[in-house]
Amino acid sequence: MFKKLYLVGLVCCLLAPSSAFAEKGKLSFTPYMGAIAATSRDMVDSASLSVSDAQTWSDGSQLSAKFRADVKSQSFQDTHDTPLLTGFDIGYFIKDDLEVFGGFQYVQAGGNTTKAGDITAAFTFTDSGGSSTSVGATDTVNGTFDDYKSWALKVGATKYFPMQTFTTYAGGYAGFKHVDSMNVKLTLVTADVSGTIKFYDATNTGFFGFHTGANKEIDLGGTALIMGVRARLDYTPELNDNDSDTSLVTNGSGTNNAGGGVDFGLTAQLSIPF
To answer: Which residues pair with 115 in a beta bridge?
Structure first.
């Protein structure tokens, strides 16, 4: 989807007639839509899990004392679909080529089911309803993350560089971001039983980023509109890990990776001056 949006914006930039858009004292409303094309965030750290006593997860599922498993590391691309990015900015030109703005953005990505690890010792699994199942040492575990959902408020500034047929620009921004909590459903493939563990708490944090792109003004029935494409690079600090169900690792730490991440996004946009 985001590739099509990017191409539409690019064609409009190249084919539309040019006129002056940036002007001191003007306001603008700019909705945009696209996707996070790449991210550096990891979600799961590799670990060898082992318990010496029966363990009860927050959903009521229970593992017997013999539980052992090897967990593999997983990136965001492993655990989730390509994130969809939407939002809008409201800007004000303090100079003909310098705009300050505030905005809102929303990101959502569906959770995927991937292999989470291998069981290395037989044990008994009791689900939240009280039914017990024997699990063999050759079983595997699949993990399914909740959807990733985040929203953010930001302020920033953009510097424009007018050219003969279009205008390029570069800018930066910073603000507040909220990321919803995420649980993981773990399914024992051969035994065909599952339980849900807490993995990330809701996160409220600051973030910052940079953007660059190209705009082209078009005339639509006497109304000046701006079509454009934008590339953005956002950095979000660590997520809040929830170790209430993941502290089964022998060294006492969880398998949830709480490190920061850099997101590279591509969007198409429409600016309306007023």
So the answer is: 142
